[in-house]
What we know:
The protein has 95 residues and is mostly beta strands. The chain is built from no helices and 4 strands. The protein has a 4-stranded antiparallel beta sheet, with no helix packed on it.
Amino acid sequence: MAATHDIVITKGSYTDKQGQPKKKYENIGKMGKRDDGSVWIQISRLFNPAGVPNPEDSDTVFANIYPIKPFGQKQAQAPQQQQQNDPFAEEDPFS
């Protein structure tokens, strides 16, 4: 029952040093498949949907689902080899 996807929300935006607008993201959980084919999701108890920006005054919160990437890999990069003794690597509380 391994996690296959991250559940991510957009929690704000900012402008980088080059003046380009960027978004801030927060990983709020995981999604995966059981052996019987059913899908499960696990959402952090610390996630508060009321804290998500709501410029349209909507009653809902949108979350995005992305395949899990290896530690340290960015969206547009090719896979990189993870260091074996990474002092910042933590056990995933969602898996």
